[in-house]
Design goal:
Layout (H helix, E strand, L loop, with lengths): L1 H21 L11 E7 L4 H5 L1 H9 L2 E7 L15 E3 L6 H8 L7 E5 L2 E6 H9 L3 E5 L2 E4 L1 H9 L31 H14 L8 H16 L9 H8 L6 E5 H9 L7 E6 L1 E2 L3 E6 L7 H7 L1 H9 L3 E2 L3 H7 L15 E2 L5 H12 L1
Parallel strand pairs: 1-2, 1-3, 7-9, 10-13
Antiparallel strand pairs: 3-11, 4-11, 4-12, 5-8, 5-9, 6-7
């Protein structure tokens, strides 16, 4: 009888071991105590989906669920359904606060990312040979906004640029493919930077400035045809080998790609020499999310993970520089030679976007 019981016990124990193995081993229970839902810019989707980010947030008591939207369209959503909004810059935040009924909320800016123009190597070479860009290395350089905007004002074709005949794919009008400036942060901030240059290096602040710069802004936008709602799809198209030769993106998208050791192909990263930085701004809507923005900004693990996804933590140049040192051929960690300007007010910028789409 003892022998039979011993065999039966052994079988049961073995069955338990097999069950644990099939289940993937014993799992550590989640420590999350709060579930919050937020609306975010698409460029942060991979960050919030990262299992390491999910775990780091759970360790601090949070399960975070997200939906995506263009940053400038967030104030049109049913914001009471969300615990927080996380647009890609600070400019839409006041409108989001007002729409959500939380005007004066304690917003946080956990990280930021400058705009870049990613170019095919052949396109970058032609731009540089015609003084529309300046190369600082094989895979990096600066887009010279003054000369570029002059070319746009003149409807310059690739075929009119010296050296372009060697590259059959460079045809039609020279333009940077952006997102919709009326709804997407990157498209809006590109207009902000371009209008600054076109307005004698001064922020557009009144109707006269809008009238003065609108014709050129229209040329920048109308030549593109259909406009994308976010930077994600154009960036993925570029990396896959399709899309236009010049694409507006966030530096974070490039830095994330490089740190994940994905092949960048013949990509050249051009930093516009005049730019408006994009501080991703966390707007708490419910009490449950009130402390989450500060956590994203200050927790060491979450800062480290933000850098891994290409973002620059506030006051985190050394962190970003150290993490991306092996990819310095593409990036400009110190933003050397870049003139950073303020954006117009929301009212002015949206008026510019409306005139540009005409």
């Amino acid at each position: 009888m003892r022998r039979i019981l011993g065999i039966a016990l052994a079988v049961l124990l073995l069955g338990g071991v097999i069950a644990v193995a099939l289940a993937g081993g014993e799992k550590t229970p989640s420590t999350a105590t709060k579930t919050v839902k937020g609306v975010i810019g698409s460029e942060k989707s991979e960050y919030f989906r990262d299992p390491d980010v999910v775990k780091a947030l759970a360790d601090k008591g949070y399960t975070v669920k997200t939906e995506t939207s263009g940053s400038w369209a967030m104030d049109q959503l049913a914001l009471k359904e969300f615990d927080f909004a996380f647009p890609s810059s600070s400019e839409p935040a006041p409108e989001i606060e007002a729409a959500a009924g939380v005007k004066g909320a304690q917003t946080t800016k956990p990280f930021f990312s400058p705009l870049v123009v990613i170019a095919r190597a052949n396109a970058a070479k032609v731009l540089a040979d015609n003084s529309l860009a300046k190369m600082t290395g094989k895979n990096s350089g600066t887009l010279l906004m003054g000369p570029y905007l002059k070319a746009a004002a003149e409807d310059r074709k690739w075929q009119q640029l010296s050296g372009s005949a060697a590259f059959a794919e460079l045809t039609g009008t020279v333009f940077v493919k952006t997102t919709d400036p009326a709804t997407s942060n990157s498209g809006a901030l590109f207009l902000a930077a371009a209008s600054n240059v076109a307005n004698d290096k001064t922020v557009v602040s009144d109707d006269a400035g809008i009238d003065r710069t609108a014709p050129l802004m229209q040329k920048l936008i109308r030549v593109q045809g259909a406009l994308e709602p976010s930077t994600d799809d154009p960036f993925r198209a570029f990396i896959s080998g399709s899309g236009e030769p010049l694409i507006l993106a966030y530096e974070s998208q490039v830095a994330s790609l490089l740190q994940q050791k994905q092949a960048p192909g013949d990509m050249v990263v051009l930093y516009p020499d005049t730019t408006v930085n994009s501080p991703h701004t966390f707007v708490p809507i419910s009490e449950n999310a009130k402390e989450l923005g500060s956590l994203l900004a200050n927790d060491p693990k979450l800062r480290e993970l933000a850098v891994r996804h290409g973002f620059r933590p506030q006051n985190g140049v050394p962190e970003f520089t150290a993490a991306t040192a092996s990819h310095a051929a593409y990036l400009n960690p110190e933003l050397t030679g870049i003139r950073q300007v303020s954006a117009p007010t929301v009212k002015i910028l949206m008026a510019l976007a409306a005139r540009a789409k005409g």
